[in-house]
Amino acid sequence: MRRSASIFLVLFTFLTVAVPLAAQTTPPSSFVNLSIGHSGAVADITSHPSQALAFTVGDDGRLGVWDLSTKNLYRRFQISPHPITRITHHPSRNEIAMFIRERVGSGVILAFNWETGEEIFRHQVDAIPTYLNYSPTGSYVVYATPSYQSLSFLASDTGDRRPYFENGFGVVGFVQMAQSERNVMTYLPTRGEFVYWQVTTGDELQRVGTRARLQHLRVVDPETRRLLAASDGSNLLIVDNLTGDVKATYPLAPIIGIQYDPESRLILV
Q: How far is Cα 164 from Cα 27, in angstroms, rounded to an integer?
C-alpha cells in the first residue's frame, strides 16, 4: 500500500505541474512531496477542478489541502481516527466526499466542506467501495461496492439515497456518467461488459462486450469520452467504450495506477 501510494503521488505531481513523464531516479525540481502532511501512508489524492489545490487522505485519518502554486500545505484537518481510503472533489463547490474505513469491511462516506470545515452528511456503507466520485454536475455522490446491488446514488447536499438500480445487476468496477446525468455507463469486470442505463428508470440502453477484469480504467478522450485506458494485468490497453474494441495494446506491467493529462495529452502510468 505504501509503495503504491508513493508512485501515485509522483504521477499526480507530474500531471499537475506538467512535468514530462520520464524515468528519473531523483525528483524533478518542481516535485511536491504531498506525503509530509501525514503521519502514515497516503491512500488517495484528488485535485480541485479550477484551483491549483490538491487534497490528500491517508491512514492517519487526516485530510491535507495543498497549494500547488506555493508547494505548501495550506490546511489540514483531523477528520477521523480511522483510515481514509478514497477522496473525490465536487465539480463546482468546495466540497469533498471521502470513504472512512471504520472496520475491516465497512465504513462511512463523509461529505465535507473543506472551506468552512463543516460536515455535510455521513452515509454508512457495509462494504469497501470499488468506486467513488461525484456526478458531472455534482448532483450525486456515486459509489459502487463489491456486491450484486453494487451501484448507489446519494444526493450530494443531503446524503439521501436515490431509488436507482435497487434490484442490482452485478459488481461495478467503473462508472462513466453522461454530462446530462440522465444516462450512465457501467463496466462489469467479471462479465467483461460495458452496460449503458437510463438513470432514473433503470432501463438498459445498450450492452457491449469487451475484455474482462480490466483495472484502473480512466477516460483519455475528453472530447468524445469514448476511449478508456485500462490494464489487463500484462498490458496497457486503449478501449473503445461504445464498441468494446481494444484500439491499442502496450506491453507494460505491473500497472498500479493510470492518470491522464489533458494539456499534454499524455497517459501517465
A: 46
pLDDT in tens, 165-195: 999 999 999 999 999 999 999 999 999 999 9
pTM: 0.82
Residue 229, C-alpha cell as written in the block: 485506458
Cell numbers that stand for 186 in this block? 457501467
In Å, what is the CA distance from 169 to each residue of 62, 130, 186, 228, 253? 35, 15, 10, 22, 31
**What is the SS3 assignment for 5?**
helix
Do 188 and 174 meet the contact criterion of CB atoms below 8 Å apart? no
Collapsed DSSP state (helix, strand, coil) of residue 9: helix
pLDDT band at 31 (very low <50, low <70, confident <90, very high): low
What domains does the chain contain, in order, with CATH numbers? 1-128 (2.130.10.10)
Nearest to residue 11, comparing CAs of 209, 240, 181, 259?
259
